[in-house]
User: Fold these one by one.
Assistant:
Number 1:
Amino acid sequence: MTYVLLSLPFLVIAAATTLATARRSGFARRMAASGIAAVVLVVLTAVFDNVMIGVGLYSYPAEHLSGLRIGLAPIEDFAYPLAAAFLVPAVYTLTRRHQGRS
């Protein structure tokens, strides 16, 4: 379960950073956009990870995985695109200068 533990801090940081933007204007719109982006990234990850694993480009040691898979791709592979879909807009929101609108 090494990969689960490695992924956990990324998900926690993404969630905390996203929640830090909850009072900023446009939060609901950002969450909707991040949700759509997350779905797209998860689908792309599922397709391309399965292809790359299927043709033998890489593999994972079983002792470091949770055992849950989507096709050939371990569930742990989906943490990073999920975190990115929410973290990137949150960081952008927190670092940009406040303007009258968002």
Number 2:
Amino acid sequence: MIYRFITIEGNIGAGKTTLAKMLGDRLKARLMLEQFADNPFLPKFYENPRQYAFPLELFFLAERYQQLKNMFAKPDLFAEVLVSDYLLMKSLLFARINLLDDEYHLFHRLFDIIHPQVPQPDLLIFLYAPVARLQQNIKKRNRSYEQHIPDEYLFKIQEMYVQFIRQQSLPTLMIDVSDADFEHEPEQFEQIVHALDYEYEPGVHYLSL
């Protein structure tokens, strides 16, 4: 395996955790999954975004940072690969969408202190799906507090991610999952696994399933 630290990113409902678990199992890798259910502000945020956005994003940033620090402080000698279903940078991207300007500037200062302290992935996998498909996936997984996420919010996240992907320098494999079902279509999952055999230059590379 060329890559030792693989991170999977994408919009809400893109299939990040599903793919991370499948790759973790196939590669016999350590798995680092976001503990979003531990964030007590998440259901409250969807009910009242303005009131709970700042504590929501602070909690996520602290939890993600602590999880990354703990993971790399105790390397598992029997598992050479680490697969994660989030990138720490997502904290800043979501903060830009959810916070007022003065809140965002403060959050950005905190992020700039934390971000250099955690390793960056060797490969970023970005799952792209249109908003209509994201909404289908969100409905299917049936988390109560997600059932009324407006399309507009998902579009904002999508735009923010696309802008970030174009500007960043990590080797990035963008996978179009608009019509994909890699969980139930083995050949699609094998395409993804096969794509990990290639060494990618910094920048964006594309894979359609």
